[in-house]
């Protein structure tokens, strides 16, 4: 029944010849002889949607993934009919539709083929469920590479792989295991150094085959629903990712503390244990902003309740933790315990909010609390009710963030680990079975949670984290990669998963640092922290049924290295926040796999380990025990070794020496990296200067710094500060132009500029065209300079 092949099936049906077409505003409809309709919609010049029906009419057009505010509109559209084909041309691409069989080819304006149907659209009728198994196959050339698809635990380049999208609670998953927790049916193809994207917006179980079944064919298919996909023209990967992210939406800014370090375990309880952990962070001076309460804080795992024996006065505890700079994040699962005395259960039952089986009974399944019913989050009324449930937790008790788990949805002790497929869902007024709603269940739960937390946290910003997600979930929530294992292989997997999520529109992601299942050695934990501080979401979590996993559970060296790296993350907070800003403003992924960073360099096409954190910091984790360094590829350009400040020319693979307390980190020449002082939590210190690490380069480089009040919504009214540094280095000169935008007045009044790699001795310094009387000797000695923050041009002349 599961369709394991899209091709060799005798019952496959194909569109026959096109008999008519009509053009309606941004769409063109092509009708075949056998009732297939292809609707081509020009969303933008570089973004085209293809939708097929075999019924002779289209069903209601509804998608949870598409952001209603995505940009649309094109500059140019011309539709022409030739003898054998139709041609649709925009200002970016040409699309040819063959009359004889509806097959499609897409070209750029120089007539280079970007994507071509092999068999194109075909389908198999499903007698059992009704509707079709819808299939698409595309021709693929040798050398074509594939990226994206969310949380897949496999190599970065998906060429040669078959992947399955069906949200699954995959405890202790393995390398190459399929399917996993998230579903992002979006991939990027790269061929002849040109990139394009495909987003197959179909929530049924989907499959993607990248030249696995047949060498020169890429195909994707779904167990139901419509063949409905978007073609996104590059030619740069950044264009593809930005368009995809615009189409499926971006989050709002998280509160800055959410980018700090988070500590979690299953579970910290009772209250005294929570306090011991938080106190130890302060005592050891390892910065930490959030502490998590896993399922044991609840009364018998009933969501929205507290175990009063362990937590007699949650409001007081949360307030005391807040005093010490800790934000409390609590877990909330979808399973609602069947218990007539439990108010949430009673209310949902009364209001008929639980999912039902096809013949009427409520969907019943075992999760942590035992037998549960499950709210149908695909019903807007249920989402509204669910949002309202957060009032007490957020407004009254003062919880700052909510962690949604088990929302694949996970069901215990059943072979398929989830709901039976006959379960009914509202699907926002498009009633359907679980076959269609399964993959978006988790996202709709996170969406409802987000709206609740946001409402009651106002005027502060909400923080949500989810395990399961479908494309577009990034609008509501951050995510983590689920129940990984404390092994070196999993460190490799985590590195790729988080990069992959980043180019799949879902940037705010991290892994359970140290591994969830099993016990990491001190060395593995250390190497994981060293990578984890460069992930957008940075949280240690473990299942707690083995040893402890707080930094001090290992030896003192581990504590010191953890502190060193978490300190670095806290120093880099303005840099990280700027990355986030660019993600939500421009759809730029926070982590850039090397292929994204430099797709024109074919050396990058199969790299897995190295990535660029933000725009200017190159990171490569150490993924083996006892390492004294590693080989890595340094992309083209000039880079400074962060630890030694020595300059290397990239575009080659090289050996990099590291110590136990280092991993390879390089900074792009010309970069200006903003840094805050180390704080134990966001907002702990008031400080008077922003540190700028300036890495000299002969040539030009632009850097930006985004700041605001770090929480709240004033930034939406223009109360932010956006600095642009244009650095120009010449043989005996360094020029820094500073441009400011925004109405937010940062609390500091000076810049401390660290001059790194300056190749000359300083002769004079001018600020805004006036020579300043400074102690040049001291500057030469200390390599830094203090400047009033109100400058426009800083000019250093050398001798
Ligand atoms: C699931 C989650 C894990 C959590 C546990 C208990 O396994 O993935 O993070 O700690 O449930 O709630």
UniProtKB/TrEMBL annotation:
<feature type="domain" description="Glycoside hydrolase family 31 N-terminal">
    <location>
        <begin position="38"/>
        <end position="209"/>
    </location>
</feature>
<dbReference type="Pfam" id="PF17137">
    <property type="entry name" value="DUF5110"/>
</dbReference>
<protein>
    <submittedName>
        <fullName>Alpha-glucosidase</fullName>
    </submittedName>
</protein>
<dbReference type="GO" id="GO:0030246">
    <property type="term" value="F:carbohydrate binding"/>
</dbReference>
<dbReference type="InterPro" id="IPR000322">
    <property type="entry name" value="Glyco_hydro_31_TIM"/>
</dbReference>
<comment type="similarity">
    <text>Belongs to the glycosyl hydrolase 31 family.</text>
</comment>
<dbReference type="InterPro" id="IPR011013">
    <property type="entry name" value="Gal_mutarotase_sf_dom"/>
</dbReference>
<keyword id="KW-0326">Glycosidase</keyword>
<dbReference type="InterPro" id="IPR013780">
    <property type="entry name" value="Glyco_hydro_b"/>
</dbReference>
<feature type="domain" description="Glycoside hydrolase family 31 TIM barrel">
    <location>
        <begin position="251"/>
        <end position="579"/>
    </location>
</feature>
<feature type="domain" description="Glycosyl hydrolase family 31 C-terminal">
    <location>
        <begin position="587"/>
        <end position="673"/>
    </location>
</feature>
<dbReference type="Pfam" id="PF01055">
    <property type="entry name" value="Glyco_hydro_31_2nd"/>
</dbReference>
<dbReference type="GO" id="GO:0004553">
    <property type="term" value="F:hydrolase activity, hydrolyzing O-glycosyl compounds"/>
</dbReference>
<dbReference type="Pfam" id="PF21365">
    <property type="entry name" value="Glyco_hydro_31_3rd"/>
</dbReference>
<keyword id="KW-0378">Hydrolase</keyword>
<dbReference type="GO" id="GO:0005975">
    <property type="term" value="P:carbohydrate metabolic process"/>
</dbReference>
<feature type="domain" description="DUF5110">
    <location>
        <begin position="689"/>
        <end position="757"/>
    </location>
</feature>
<dbReference type="Pfam" id="PF13802">
    <property type="entry name" value="Gal_mutarotas_2"/>
</dbReference>
<dbReference type="InterPro" id="IPR033403">
    <property type="entry name" value="DUF5110"/>
</dbReference>
<dbReference type="InterPro" id="IPR030458">
    <property type="entry name" value="Glyco_hydro_31_AS"/>
</dbReference>
<dbReference type="InterPro" id="IPR025887">
    <property type="entry name" value="Glyco_hydro_31_N_dom"/>
</dbReference>
<dbReference type="InterPro" id="IPR048395">
    <property type="entry name" value="Glyco_hydro_31_C"/>
</dbReference>
<dbReference type="InterPro" id="IPR017853">
    <property type="entry name" value="GH"/>
</dbReference>
